[in-house]
Amino acid sequence: MPTFEFSGEIAGTPKENLFDSLGAKIKVVGVGGAGGNAVNSMINENIDGVEFIAVNSDFQDLQKSKAKIVIQIGKNIAKGLGVGGNPDLGNECAKADQNDLTEALQGSDMVFITAGMGGGTGTGASPVVAKLARDAGALTVAIVTKPFTFEANKRLIQAESGIQELANEVDSLIVIPNDKLNEVQQISGILDSFKAADDVLTKAVRGIAEIIVGSGFINVDFADVKKIMKESGGKALMGTGEGEGTSRAVEAAENAITSPLLEDISIEGATGILINVTASSNFTIDELNDACSHIKSKANPNVELIFGLVVNETLSDKVRITVIATGIDGNSDSIRKAAVPLEEDVEQISLNLEEDETEINNDLSGTEEEVSKIDELHPLGDDAHFEIPAFIRKPKGKSTDE
Question: H/E/C letters for each residue in 15-39?
Answer without folding.
Answer: HHHHHHHHCCCEEEEEEHHHHHHHH
